[in-house]
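Human: Here is a favour to ask of a fellow structure person. Comparing notes only helps if you start from a blank page. I am asking you to supply a protein in sequence and structure-token form. Write it directly below this note and I will take it from there.

Assistant:
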Amino acid sequence: MMYWIVFAFFTTAETLTDIVLSWFPFYFELKIAFVIWLLSPYTKGSSVLYRKFVHPTLSNKEKEIDEYITQARDKSYETMMRVGKRGLNLAANAAVTAAAKGQGVLSEKLRSFSMQDLTLIRDEDTGFVLKFG
């Protein structure tokens, strides 16, 4: 775990230093050597950096980090509830609108038929006209 935490910091720093120092001779070779030093079980570079820099910093800022995580959790819950309510309201409005429009279209279609049209319905299987009433 120490390696991945140190490697994450390295990757973040690498993004900035690539822009500034990529012209430096042997820059990329030095980066490779540094990653090998971090990974090597003989040098334990990531463990050294973690114990010397990362762990003391995280220990000093532990309460602040915990408060930030709590605030983020509370805000995310509130945001999800608000977005969920809006989504349900939009879905309900869309369903009601679709039902109202669909009912209006159906009633218009039925109004266009006269009683004569409804009593003379052709049977599609036999081709005969069925007379009701």
